[in-house]
């Protein structure tokens, strides 16, 4: 069975969608949740689902010990699901091709430092874009610049608020992220 590590900073709706999906098909399990916020909702999900979790700070994110702890889980994939910090080069190099992220816009547009969550939806609506969507991509040393795995689109309605668009984007995320993870797992071998 594949092991997944999820990094998340917020409520954890994507983490919950992934956990639920793999509880049903048994192809993978979330073996560890890592968060940089002690009050993140994703930690309540971890407790409810009896998934081990780790709370980190900026200093521990850059320590070799964290790489060792992640390696102990032998993850097939490290999944960023609303994790607000850039992955350090050392972690990217320790898990090459095994770290993925989901972004709430169609990259390369509306990506980069500071472009996350509500900030993205506000910018898309303010620019009067006709469509938005999600991008699932590999992670490298830069924000939102590694190879794209999948994009899914949705319309931006004329009278949309950022919250209206966010609701539409969340539906795409919750549907496509677990299925993309499953696709990737089916195309890599367990080491």
Describe what you observe in this structure.
This protein is 40% helix and 22% strand. With 191 residues, the protein is an alpha/beta fold. The chain has one domain: Rossmann fold. Strands 3-2-1-4-5-6-7 form a seven-stranded mixed β-sheet, with helices on one face. Helix 2 links the parallel strand 2 (28-35) and strand 3 (53-55). Helix 6 (117-126) packs across helix 7 (162-186). The chain is globular.
Helix-strand string: EHEHEHHEHEHEEH
What is the rounded distance between the termini? 11 Å
CATH architecture: 3-Layer(aba) Sandwich
The CATH class: Alpha Beta
Largest β-sheet summary: 7 strands, mixed
Give me the side-by-side strand order of the main sheet: 3-2-1-4-5-6-7
Rg: 16 Å
Count of DSSP helices? 7
Principal-axis shape:
globular
Strand content: 15-25%
Give the beta-strand count: 7
Provide a short characterization of the protein structure.
This protein is of the alpha/beta class and 191 residues long. It has one domain: Rossmann fold.
Outline the secondary-structure elements:
Blueprint: E1 2-7, H1 13-25, E2 28-35, H2 41-49, E3 53-55, H3 58-61, H4 64-72, E4 77-80, H5 89-94, E5 99-103, H6 117-126, E6 131-138, E7 148-155, H7 162-186
Parallel strand pairs: 1-2, 1-4, 2-3, 4-5
Antiparallel strand pairs: 5-6, 6-7
Helix pairs in contact: 1-7, 6-7
């Amino acid at each position: 069975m594949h092991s997944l590590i999820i990094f998340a900073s917020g409520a954890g709706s994507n983490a919950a969608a992934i956990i639920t999906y793999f509880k049903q098909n048994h192809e993978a399990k979330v073996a560890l949740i890592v968060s940089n916020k002690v009050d993140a909702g994703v930690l309540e999900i971890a407790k409810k689902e009896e998934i081990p979790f780790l709370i980190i700070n900026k200093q521990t994110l850059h320590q070799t010990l964290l790489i060792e702890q992640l390696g102990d889980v032998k993850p097939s994939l490290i999944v960023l699901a609303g994790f607000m910090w850039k992955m350090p080069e050392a972690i990217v190099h320790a898990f090459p091709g095994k770290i993925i992220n989901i972004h709430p816009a169609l990259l390369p547009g509306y990506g980069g430092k500071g472009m996350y969550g509500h900030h993205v939806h506000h910018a898309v609506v303010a620019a009067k874009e006709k469509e938005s969507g999600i991008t699932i991509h590999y992670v490298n040393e830069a924000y939102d610049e590694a190879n794209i795995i999948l994009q899914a689109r949705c319309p931006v309605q004329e009278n949309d608020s950022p919250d209206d668009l966010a609701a539409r984007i969340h539906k795409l995320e919750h549907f496509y992220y677990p299925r993309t993870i499953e696709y990737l797992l089916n195309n890599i071998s367990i080491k």
